[in-house]
Amino acid sequence: MSILLIEAFYGGSHKQLIDLLQRNVEDCVAYTLPAKKWHWRARTAAIYFMQAVPVSGSYRVLFTSSVLNLAELAALRPDLATLKKILYFHENQLVYPVRKNQERDFQYGYNQVLSCLVADVVVFNSAFNMESFLTTIGTFMKLIPDYRPKDLEKIIRPKCQVLYFPINFPDVKRFFTDDKHSYFSEKTVVEEARNPERCLSENEDSTLVKRLTKNSDSDQEPGSCKKISATCQEVPLNPPGTPQELNRKEESESTVPYHEEDKEQPTFDPCGKTGGMVEKCDGLTNQQRPLRIVWPHRWEHDKDPEAFFKTLLKLKEKGLNFQVSVLGETFSDVPDIFTEARKDLDACVSHWGYISSKEEYFKALCEADVVVSTAKHEFFGVAMLEAVHCGCYPLCPNALVYPEIFAAEYLYSTPEQLFKRLQNFCKRPDLVRKHHAKVANAETKHQYRFLS
Q1: d(CA 194, CA 407)
Q2: Strand partners for 63
Q3: pTM, to two decimals
Q4: How far is Cα 365 from Cα 349, in angstroms, rounded to an integer?
Q5: What is the pLDDT of residues 94-134, one digit of tens each?
Q6: At 172, phi and psi to the nearest 5?
Q7: Is 220 left (phi over 0), alpha (psi -120 to 50) or beta?
Q8: CA-CA distance, 148 to 14, in Å (whole number)?
Q9: Conformational region of residue 380, where left means phi above 0, alpha means psi within -120 to 50, and beta covers everything else
Q10: DSSP string covering 48-100
Q11: DSSP letter string, 354-400
């Protein structure tokens, strides 16, 4: 085996990437640790892999994520230090949010800087991830009381490049609701004809293998990111009354009038308190069915579930009908807000909790109309892109990585803007269901050539 894959936190997007590489790259072998106790993985994984990875003269490339302290492993295993070492950043610890600044452990960010110094190639999943890391190194090192290192950004930046995370977009049309089937039937969820190099899919095995094994360097300038130049999803011209028209009215408190057909709309309690809207939706028109909102993120504070649930409770207080699915993975420490919100939003809930089956997960996404992020931290956002692939209208903060990927019409700047957008959509869910989201995707023609 010539390509050695090492993952110290084998879960979530880390697992997705390793699994995809294993499926598509010949002559590779992977060694992993379960995605538990992240802090201990970052501290001790190097000594575990020192013993777990057998000595072999056939290795030529070592690929690992930034959870592993690569400097430690290279010191513990001199035979691995001579390989071409590729470090992949799913996230960086220099700007990863902590609830209080004094809680930030200097060691984790410091280890990532050391790993960059040892690596031959440093890869980030977004320009936001790369720039936030590189431009914070100097400030971060000032935490050292004296004898501080200098010019580390200048040393590391030439090794760096941005390669957007490759997502396997499966065919989900069989899960589409009737309204999505009728609208998307003449369109492709991922545009192929105009952008054959689009988002990476598992049907591109041969192309991916060439990218992974081609013995040439990318012509991308090190330490820079190419402008996003291709669209991953197509958007038709927006007719009158589209979400864009509603967005322009956000600054006033006025609401959008209902269609004439709304006059005959049955009267429901907010979220169907008298029996639940899900069971009552059969036979209702596209306009009458309540808006279906999905939040598919980790149940952790950095995703700001408090802001999301606060917005939903305001919608409920306004007497607006909606259904919500709260998906995403849970870990040992679940914020209390989830228990409180489950009780307060009980009648509005379509699904609550992690879905281990990928097929069932995509089915749940396909049943939703709007996908919301309230994240305080996001370096790429696989869940949001998967939801858009399933026909959801995205609403994201105008910050972090989101402006890099999503058009301005899908971004909000304040919690009040998010509330107004969802308020409008609750009143006109038919317009959201007729919209085909535009999502930018970086050129991928150079992806993964660095495995050479």
Answers
A1: 19
A2: 5, 86
A3: 0.77
A4: 14
A5: 998 776 655 678 999 999 999 999 999 999 999 999 999 99
A6: -115, 10
A7: beta
A8: 32
A9: alpha
A10: HHHHHSPP-TT--EEEEETTS-HHHHHHH-HHHHTSEEEEEESS-TTS---SS
A11: ----HHHHHHHHHT-SEEE---S--SS-HHHHHHHHTTPEEEEESST
